[in-house]
Amino acid sequence: MNGLINYVSCGVLWLCLVVKAPDLLRHRRDPYLGAICAVLGLAGLCFLLGAPPTVGAVNRLSGVPNLAAPLTYAAITGYCAASQVLIVRWRGGPRVDRTVRRWTLAYAAVVLGVGVLFALGDAPVERRTDLDTYYATTPFIAQMIVLYLVAHLTAVTVTTFSALRWARRVRGGLRAGLTLLGAGALCGAGYSTAKLVAVGARWSGRDWSALGTAVSPAAAGLGALLTVVGVLVPLVAPRVTEWRRAGRAYARLGPLERVLDDLLTRRALRLPRPRFASPATRLMWRRTSIHNALGHLDAYLDRDLYDRTRAGVLAATGDPERAEAAAWAAAITEAVRREADPARAVAAAAGGGSPPGASPGSPVGPRLGPAPGPAALGRIADVLATAPPAPALAAVPSGTTTAGTA
After folding, report:
1. With contact defined as beta carbons under 8 Å apart, do 364 and 300 qualify?
2. Of 228, 185, 217, 198, whose CA–CA distance to 52 is shortest?
3. Which string of b and e fits 262-295 if b means at least 16 CB within 10 Å?
4. Are the C-beta atoms of 231 and 83 separated by less than 8 Å?
């Protein structure tokens, strides 16, 4: 009787509404976003008004016994209409606005009918949990109860069939969302069906009020949970997919960053690591660090080594992208060694690895051109992950395959 489940459910629903509120403020004319917020807001209101403590407070403050009942019924009716409107908005089509107006007008008439019937009826004894069965035989109040239950059952039935039928035609997050929304509507059908059965039993002289006080609230709670998750999944799925893709790209670049790690540390080329950042932000940080290192290594990159490695791998595999990645991997690995060991750079210059008279830090040949793009960086990291180029790679003759690049 304390309504804890109702208040927790309301809090979760309205928390989701608060999360979506900034988007609604920025896009006030977006009917799709408006329908989502209406579903979240009205679903939370249903739980709030349906909690026994709230029922007692509304009745006491208004001075009208059972006034909370038509208010709750109106909220439930509005929630049903909003759910159906959301389905219509999702599907789209040439007659969306006309269909939305019809649903809105139909359920506005139901809300009006609930109010009129309550005003005409007489419900002097406050019933916080079993009003449906207690007043099932009271003139006008009984008709009010049946009206809102039939309207609710109609809406959730239509929503169930519409959502599940459409879910078979789509894929991804939208399909999952529609399936959950259809399952939530099906639970909602269980809510109104249980109450109608309890009312029917009351008409025949039986007391099945437990269906309305225990089964119906459980079905409503589960239905609201599934509905909210179904509404949010299509909104969250693209972002989750983007984060997953960014996380994979971040991990993929790990071998390349490890090759450059000593250089990044010694030359303080790495930006501070972002904390509590999204995968996309961490990916940007890693790419920026790699580009900083490649910019510093520009003077040490050996074009002749690049060309010979590329030609050898291309002849062995026939894959231009793989050959380019292997050539970059070889040139970067050797450039890191040159930059870290000036004596090695001088020896390489004397041995033909760079033009005569080259000094450490001076260009070792023609520039390699622009730094590799994001896709190329991933392929270079793949080469380094499988088998890093060996130190002898600089002497690979043309037409042979380098270690780890074939």
Report:
1. yes
2. 217
3. ebbeeeebbeeeeeeeebbebbbbbbebbebbbe
4. no
Say how far apart CA 114 and CA 148 lie, in whole Å.
7
Enter the tokens of residue 366: 């023609």
What are the two backbone dihedrals, phi and then psi, of residue 170, each rounded to the nearest 5 degrees? -125, 175
Give Cβ neighbours of residue 268 (< 8 Å, ≥ 6 apart). Answer: none
Q: Of 69, 71, 77, nearest to 129 (Cα)?
A: 69
Question: Nearest to residue 161, comparing CAs of 176, 177, 183?
Answer: 183
pTM: 0.67
Q: How far apart are the first and last CA of the chain?
A: 72
Is 342 within 8 Å of 360 (Cβ atoms)?
yes
pLDDT tens digits for range 236-285? 888 888 999 999 999 999 999 999 999 998 888 888 888 888 899 999 99
What are the φ and ψ backbone dihedral angles of 151, each rounded to 5 degrees?
-65, -40
Amino acid code (one letter) for 195: K
**DSSP characters over 46-82:** HHHHHSHHHHHHHHHHH-STTTHHHHHHHHHHHHHHH
Burial pattern 141-177, b for ≥16 Cβ within 10 A else e, equals: bbbbbbbbbebbbbbbbbbbebbbebbeebeebbbbb
The predicted-structure confidence for 182-210, as pLDDT tens digits, reads as follows 898 899 899 999 999 999 999 998 888 88
DSSP string, 212-278: IIIIHHHHHHHHHHHHHHHHHHHHHHHHHHHHHHHHHHHHHTHHHHHHHHHHHHHTT-SPPPPSS--
Structure token pair of residue 191: 């809510």
Longest dimension (CA), the chain: 108
